[in-house]
Write a structure and sequence with these properties.
mainly beta, six-stranded mixed beta sheet
Length: 125
Amino acid sequence: MYTDIFYPDSASWDVESAPDYHVPNILVKEDTLFQAYTIYCAAAIIPHDANLKIRFVGQNYYTPTEPYCQGWQYYAQSYAYTLYAQRWNELMSAEIYLWDPGSATIEYFENDMDTPAFTKIITWN
């Protein structure tokens, strides 16, 4: 049972069909430099009394779609998308593919906050 929001170092981007195939988690707060033309995941586990919204703003990345967006509700906008947590105390994960070198801002809205609890800028070469 989780009591805090947890971002695993790696996870499968296909939790249901390939749970043992792990890739690095782009949501790990300390990680900001990534490789272009590589698959990552956006993975988190939240406790029952928590909410989580993750917002990506940028270009040159593949946005998650079914079936590779599991446990998240996905909302796309121009040059941005938002993931809303839909599972509690179990892994949620989405495929993130970084193509041509670029950068993006990731905003973490934890527990219904109006402003991000954490923001990071990622780059990939």
